[in-house]
Design a protein that fits this description.
Blueprint (H helix, E strand, L loop, with lengths): L5 E4 L3 H12 L4 E5 L22 E4 L6 H11 L3 H8 L1 E2 L4 E4 L1 H13 L4 E5 L13 E3 L7 H11 L25 E2 L16 E2 L4 H13 L20 H6 L13
Parallel strand pairs: 1-2, 1-7, 2-6
Antiparallel strand pairs: 3-5, 4-5, 8-9
Helix pairs in contact: 3-4
Length: 256
């Protein structure tokens, strides 16, 4: 009897991990990723597990921290995401942050070289064919419109939403280190042993007020058509927080 492969749709973090675990268990898996045949509004490469928002996997300390505990569990389960993340980590205090390019390159290389993994560069434009016996749909917020509609029709939902925020990149050369200093959040030592991973940029009252004025008056990014969804209070854009009150940032993400 011919054993059919397991199909995984989506080559992001979840799809890459699922394909790796299936292959490591000895089964054959076909990982379907539509890039570069069809691009998205956020990806820049055709690499698997490409990070298009923050490069941080959040806290890495498992003691009393749910995210860190998940990291520890994944490492024990031979996670490809954690192995490549650890191999390409960058200083981030108590968090696990990674070099985006090195991380995606490593995940792609490991899956491409696995004998049980076949990577199909094609769009799955709708529900999987009936002859695919075992399927994992691991697509995220950048799912193609046709597959998104198929999922909506199957589930009976009226809309699918995903909340995240842009993580701007600031070059270290643009920071005046005569004023700023390195110190990790809560003085935590990170997974790489670095206790001073963050660059702290202080403001006096006048500078803070000028920053808020510029933030409120400055141009804002225009939404794409598919991005018109309600804000999630746990992941607000900084200008939206500032609009809720001039002291909001001082008591939130910009607190000492």
């Amino acid at each position: 009897m011919t054993i059919k492969p397991i199909h995984v749709i989506g080559g992001g973090l979840a799809g890459s991990e699922a394909a790796w675990q299936i292959a490591q268990a000895g089964a054959n898996v076909v990982l379907h990723e539509m890039r570069p045949v069809r691009g998205t509004d956020a990806h820049h490469t055709d690499k698997l597990a490409e990070l298009v928002c923050s490069n941080s996997f959040r806290a890495d300390d498992w003691a009393g921290n749910a995210v860190g505990l998940l990291h520890a569990e994944m490492r024990r389960l031979d996670s490809i995401i954690m192995a490549c993340g650890d191999a390409h980590q960058v200083p981030a205090g108590g968090a696990l942050a990674v070099d985006r390019d090195g991380f995606a390159d490593a995940v792609t290389a490991r899956l491409e070289s696995h004998p049980n993994v076949t990577i199909a560069r094609e769009e799955v434009a709708g529900l999987p064919p009936a002859d695919w016996d075992n399927v994992i749909v691991a697509t995220g917020p950048l799912t193609s419109p046709s597959l998104s509609q198929a999922i909506l029709d199957l589930t009976g939902e009226g809309a699918l939403s995903f909340f995240d925020a842009i993580a701007p990149i600031v070059t270290v050369e643009s920071v005046n280190m005569d004023v700023c200093w390195r110190q990790s959040r809560y003085d935590k030592v990170g997974p790489g042993g670095d206790a001073a991973a963050y660059i702290n940029c202080p403001m006096d009252k006048d500078q803070y007020e000028a920053f808020i004025d510029a933030l409120l008056a400055g141009p804002k990014s225009e939404f794409k058509e598919w991005e018109h969804v309600p804000y999630f209070d746990g992941c607000l854009p900084i200008e939206v927080m500032a609009e809720r009150g001039r002291e909001t940032l001082r008591h939130g993400p910009m607190k000492p």
